[in-house]
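Bump. Still looking for Xanthine dehydrogenase structure tokens.
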Amino acid sequence: MIFRLYTYIIFSGNLCRCTGYRPIIEGFRTFTEEWEQSQLMADVRNKETDNTRVCSMGDACCKRAFTSEPTEIFNSKEFCPYDPTQEPIFPPVLKLQSELDEQYLIIKGADVTWYRPTKFRTLLSLKDQYPNAKIVIGNTEIGVETKFKHLVYPVLIQPTQIKELHQIVETPRTLRVGASVTLAELEDTLRYYVKRKPEYSTRVFTEIINMLHWFAGKQIRNVAAVGGNIMTGSPISDLNPIFMAAGVKLNVCSLKHGSRTIPMDHTFFIGYRRNVLFPEEVLVSIDIPFTKQTQYFIAYKQAKRRDDDIAIVNMALNVYFAPDTSVVQEAHIAFGGMAPTTILARQACQKMIGRKWDKTTLEEVYDSLLEELPLTDDAPGGMIKYRRSLTLSLFFKAFVHISKALSKTVADVEALPKELESVSDCFHYKAPKSSQYFQVVPKNQEMQDLIGRPIVHSSALKQATGEAVYCDDMPRCAEELYLALVLSTRAHARILQVDPTKALSMKGVVSFFSSKDIAEDRRWVGPVFHDEEIFISEEVTSQGQVVGAIVATNQMTAQTAARMVEIEYENIDPIIISIEDAIEHESFFPGCPRTIIKGDAEEAFAQASHVLEGEIRMGGQEHFYLETHATIAVPREEDELEVFCSTQHPTEVQKLIAHVLNIHINRVNVRVKRIGGGFGGKESRAALLAVPVAFAAHRLQKPVRCMLDRDEDMMISGTRHPFLFKYKVGFNDDGLIEAVKIYIYNNAGYSHDLSASVLERAMFHCQNSYRIPVIEIYGYVCKTNLPSNTAFRGFGGPQGMFVAETIIRQIADYLKLDVVKLSELNLYREGDVTHYNQRLINCTLDHCWRQCLMSSQYNERIVEVQRYNRENRFKKKGLAVVPTMFGIAFTASFLNQAGALVHIYTDGSVLLSHSGVEMGQGLHIKMIQVASRELKVNPDKIYITETATDKVPNTSATAASCGSDLNGMAIMNACKEIMKRLQPIIDRNPEGKWEDWIREAYFQRISLSATGFYRTPEIGYSFETNSGNPFNYFTYGVACTEVEVDCLTGDHQVLRSDIVMDLGESLNPAIDIGQVEGAFVQGYGLFTLEEMVYSPTGILFSRGPGVYKLPGFTDIPQEFNVSLLKGASNPRAVYSSKAVGEPPLFLASSAFFAIKEAIKAARKDINIHGHFRLDAPATAARIRNACVDNLTMKIEEPDLKKQWNVVP
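Sorry for the wait, here they are.
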């Protein structure tokens, strides 16, 4: 049986932030022993107790005041019990014999030979013959090098069958561990010894176990070997600092030099990823020493993300004390992340010897570490001040840890103040608690009417079992070819020459295409302005632009050949990366500034009691959909082209392909079964790949396929727009906002794309949920030498709201007022008019606000937070409440339309087609629910096969949270038309069955097919007159989040989040709650973790999850409560529902502002008060640097102009 904690360990290596993780955890929990036991106990309790008890408050019960009782979305009692005959990992019965696994194996390829010897002597002979051969156990490092760095190692040796490298042997003083022992095996063995040996003798073992917890995911630890970690020699290795501080010894062997033992000390590493072993030597085993009674050992690691991440800085400290005293006899401190190798701080250790373990020693070690561990301002990895401060912080944590342990046995240890006792503690995972509240359907609602019911996603079972087919899962066509893109490697340069000769000479390469193959008037494309070339002809303006395409017989050949295309450049200055660069060079797209002006801001400032100014910025965000961009194009007869594409906007892809090929749109049919996530990233950018693939297929008259690798996708497809805000605000003594002037800048990248519309959405939302009577907004779209940024869930709305929340909090700090009361004072009310002159109707902001404060117990918890902060110096909690008011509609009014096609077949089955794309958000199941109500038919008879441009033409993108609203109304209208035709037949035979009515209609020659169409009424806005209604309605919500921050490292943990959302009358609470939770976790990444990293020359460093960090399973709130507001209606959408996709995302900023509250509490302890700037995301580095203390004050500010990376 699986235990609950183990589920967390299993999941920690998996990333899928848009799910919110909570449903996955709870679903998998039903496989655990604890769940089985809870079901048995629940049955017993139900028999023993009377379940009819109700709250004495009746309908006034707090749980009923705003929402219904919590309800399980799925009845977990119906789940099948665990069947021990069904092994969830790998059925042992399928592994019949191990004979083949134990043979000496040699696999020879064109470039690489793979050896799997079974004898130690054979291994040494191979290494003697091939001294530069790479030894591979789990392929966790070499796999990365060959996949992403394209390195080729001619000889690879796998020694997993050699017992000498796999043995674990106890000696009197050490545990000898074979070099090919996996990290998981090492952990299990060390746990065995920790249980059976005295505590003092296994202190190094304990720290290795603790560190392995943070070392990658379980999947990696199952295959990666301890020897590989040492020999790889990464300067940020998790284990090497422990091994060096512990004084482990390495046993190596070769035919030439025999056996020898090497100390893993300051002499071991001789350079970046280089050590003292001879090329022909093999690491056989390592000796990990047992510890002594007067020896104390501790290790710490700080990373961008706590779980499953590489270190920024890590440290291990090994201290020996004189018996029964606090006098240091010997000490060893090892650091990773502070030099090209793991290093021992030997000078600092010398300072400790003979000294008492007290504050004086602590201060001297600080000074020594700063001197011994310098970092230049341009050191790789950046974060200079943060990394230097971590050396002090981690040592301080270790000092406190050892002080507490030493004080249990030694009398002369200097006593620690109570507020420092928590310093040494780290954050650890706790199984999450959650609740979901929503309004259940009336008991008299017909069973076939699915509206309002929590129905499972229509593809859920197929996705959970891996059976769901995505674009690249489709079987290969006959004679299919593969396309690989040739990408620019410069951010701004003139192309002097493109030479594909070497690539074309490769076996299997079919063709190379470039701008020369497309007519001048056909090579330009774009969603609004045609300002992007399919293949760049003369000047590249960003790294990752498409210069050409190689077509070959298979993927590997195509990708290898693409790297062989030679491009000669001539650099062009300037290279504009950041918004500040663009402002300095006045690099803006035409039409700037865009303005919204209401009233006279300068006059209002003159009359205001107080005026403040400020500046804040938000970073970009990578979409990181699980399915990267993918396209298959299949040519048919007479210029017809069938295109299977992972896109949110099939019509846009169709139009651009037709434009480039110079054929009619009706010859191109774009089909989308489902896509593996989009978040806006596949709204306009799908054409980057789809058009070259379609062009190649059309030109060669053969099927062509391409799916981007993750690093390619991240390099070329753009991100959420970084924003910079400069603001001025006037307000009265009570904090009531009277006027605001804001300058908004977004980083568009090299082309227009949708950046102007993203900017406009930010301008509409820069007041968030607050009434601002006088406002001036000036918006600029910055043209830079970065990949063109694009739509992303929220579409500029979260960035705009962010400045509003920043302003509110700056006012509260200035007036020394409670920010919650100040927010309440400024909140919109029913009937208020926005700064773009749209009147608010059915405004439930106040209702959501009051419900959130009550359900989150804010007033009680803020008192507890303040108490905790008084009692802890370097651990602080923060609590924040944030509202959201998100406008629902495409701001380009012509896009607010949708079509549908409904067929009913003679057996009564129904086929729906509509203009929306299923990308995991549950759109198809909602459309089936709409049809089930209108047709009053068994939902099992309703089916949606795909989205295709030959079924519903001229569609808008599935975006702006409008998918359910627009397509739901279109399907409703089509179904109503059919039911209108059927009504006479139903009236004549009211007791008949659905199938009888359909059969009769067919015989009466009544059409059983209908199109539906819907356009949003009374919508449209003019920037020139600042009038009209840009939005159909608003979705409201409020979140309250509590966090805890480790002020010494910048690490934090989300303790609890309570969300109240007004989603009207939810079409499907299961889907909608999932969307709320998923948006929150994705937004949490935006505001705290996810950070794009660029070089000063425009090269993207964050091309994968190794550098770019997404929230993981352990990052969700420990308590996560979601309530859908009860009794809210919305007459402007299908069945009074509301859009849900984008609105909840900004609520995750409550975690950001709670972090800021915690930082404020830390600064207060050092007598620093008032407002301070904290840009988003609130990474560990930004948090630590903002928590100013005596340690950060010891470190000089680095020169940011020299830094290794640039903030865009």
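The CA atoms of residues 824 and 1022 lie 30 Å apart.

Edit: fixed formatting.
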